[in-house]
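Field notebook, page 487. I keep forgetting to write these up properly, so this time I am using the form the group agreed on. The chain and the ligand, zinc ion, are recorded exactly as supplied. Prediction of the bound pose follows.
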Amino acid sequence: MHRRPFCISALVLIVQNSLAAQTQDSMIDTIHVCYPGENGHLAGDVIHMPIDPPTLESLDAAEQAQSRGAYNIETLIDSGRSDNRVDIVFMGDGYTEDELDLFHAQVNEQIAFMFDKEPFKTYRSHFNVHRIDVISNESGIDNDPVEGIDRDTALDTGYWCSGIERAICGDWSKIRSISSLAPGDEQVIVLCNSTRYGGAASFGQLISYVAAGHSAADWVLLHEFGHAFGHLADEYQTGGPTTYTGPETIRTNASIYDAEDQLALETKWHDWIGESFPEFDGLVGSWEGAMYSSFGLFRPSVNSLMRSLGRQFNMPSVEELVYFSHIGARVIDSHSPQGEFHGHGHSFSFDVVQPVGHDLNVWWQLGFDVIPGSEGRFIYDLCELQLQPGEYVLIAKAQDDTPWVRDEQKRMALFGNVWWNIVIDTPPADRTADGIIDFADLIHFLNDYSNEDPMADLAEPFGEFDFWDVSEYLRLFTEVCPTHGDG
Ligand SMILES: [Zn+2]
């Protein structure tokens, strides 16, 4: 492949398996490679690479390691349960046992960097981060610094992936087998023990590789994460045909339509056009040159992180990243209790995945009706609602009203609700059936009890009138709401 001019500030390479097309015999990934180009911008190639099926050797190795409990696994950011979080797993390749401290330091540096950048800073609580210590027999990775150098490493990573010098890839089946030992592993990041710029991001396997010792490794990884997590396009204009003539792209941040057409068609980033966002690469409009072509494709901002290192994501890209953060971690995290409920003696609550810096809008409804004053509440005791006998659906709702998401479809992902079916019967303690539980009811019960009326035979052993009947009545009496019926 081509040799690229060395650029000290921005040496990057990304491989993105943007499409994993199932063929009759094997999986073919469309792989996208990013590396530094001219003027500080990124440049790239698109290649196609078959994904080999897992080898018996790699599966055996992973299985043996699992059964031996060979890996030290630590959770570095624990935001909550893994089935409602985006779990990121960091693993290392080419680190000997003596180099684990270096690996730990590089992981910590990457995490600190990523969660100091928006939108991950605000939406940190949507992510868990785990680290698996994988020890290699030899230090460094294959084909470093030149092709043909072979090292004995745990994950078999190396440069010259698919014949491209700066592309790093490894044994995906080993990597995925080991990552599955973590509590969750939606995204896997493999830090490679090298100072030479290089990396890869496999969209199909959701594995990102980066040479962690390079000075720009943190920016490289953030750019890669934009691909692997946010499905974002590159916004640089080299590597493909000079003029793009294909159909509209499926990427949120590249379009065949310029600003005027987007506004007319109400498509792509039309919601943002004409406004400037100083935090997110400034003005949103349309600049020709994106996704490897100089003409025929437009990008939303002048020079975002998807075009150059050391930059911000632009506003439409941030919208997409926030959207995917909510796909991976829904706003309502848990609720209790579960089931259908009879009577007033219950209280209902829920928790949300809380962003940094702003609260979610939360409110409660009985059916379609918003409960007045319920905004901002996470718990309700049914007695507070003073429900008359009947059937109800109690609904708790939460919505992230961040200004960073405008698209109506995407905003749906920022909304959540949970509900409970509730039946309020005529209270058994209401002996006088006047809708009020009061002293008169207690007198009524005691009268029945002293007359050994079956109506007062409330508890086992049935047929006897004893302490247990009184106890049961007092339980029913106190179970209902003190103010029930007063409203
Ligand atoms: Zn890229």
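OBSERVATIONS:
- The domain at 19-228 is CATH 3.40.390.10 (Collagenase (Catalytic Domain)).
- The first strand starts at residue 19 and ends at 22.
FOLLOW-UP: compare against the apo run.
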